[in-house]
C-alpha cells in the first residue's frame, strides 16, 4: 500500500506506516490530506482502488501467492467500484441503484469486476516495474522499525 499510496495518491501524504507482527492484518498505512478536498473525481477513485488492491498484487509479485490478509482490502475495493458503477454513474451507464433503495441488480457485477481487474493490473504493473524500489523502501522501513523496537526494549 505504502508504495502505491506515494506513487498514485497526490492529494494525501503518508502520515504513518505500521507493520503488525501478528493478527489478521500485516500492517496499515495512514494518510493525511495535503489540502482540503471534499469530492473525489473518477481518476482519484480509480487510484484509490489501485492502491487498495496493492497488497493483493504485492503478494503475487513478491511472494508468488496470496493470503487471507487482503480480505478487508478486497471489500473496500469492491465497495468503491460498486459505488462508481451503481451510485456515481462513472462507467457506461447513468443507472443508479441508489434510486432502488441501494439494491444492486445482477448486471452490475461484471461492470464492477471489470474495474477491479483493470485497477489490479495497474497495481501489479507498477509493482513489477518498480520492484527494486519497493524492495529498497521495505528494507529501509524494516531497519527503522527494528531500531525502534530495540529502543523500546532497551528502555
Number of strands: 2
What's the shape?
A: globular
- Please list the strands of the largest sheet in the order they lie side by side: 1-2
Q: Biggest sheet: strands, sense, closure?
A: 2 strands, antiparallel
Structural class: mainly alpha
The rounded distance between the terminal residues' Cα atoms is 31 Å
Number of helices: 6
- What's the rounded overall pLDDT mean? 78
Low-pLDDT stretches: 150-155
**What percentage of the residues does DSSP assign to strands (E)?**
5-15%
Query: Helical percent range?
Result: 55-70%
Radius of gyration: 18 Å
Order of helices and strands: HEEHHHHH
Give a nutshell description of this structure:
This protein has 155 residues and is mostly helical. Helices cover 58% and strands 10% of the residues.
Write the topology of this structure:
Layout: H1 2-8, E1 12-19, E2 27-33, H2 42-52, H3 54-63, H4 71-86, H5 108-129, H6 131-154
Antiparallel strand pairs: 1-2
Helix pairs in contact: 1-2, 2-4, 2-5, 3-5, 4-5
Describe this structure in words.
The longest helix has 24 residues. The C terminus is likely disordered. The protein is globular, with a radius of gyration of 18 Å. By secondary structure, the chain is mainly alpha-helical. Helix 2 packs across helix 5. The chain has a two-stranded antiparallel sheet.
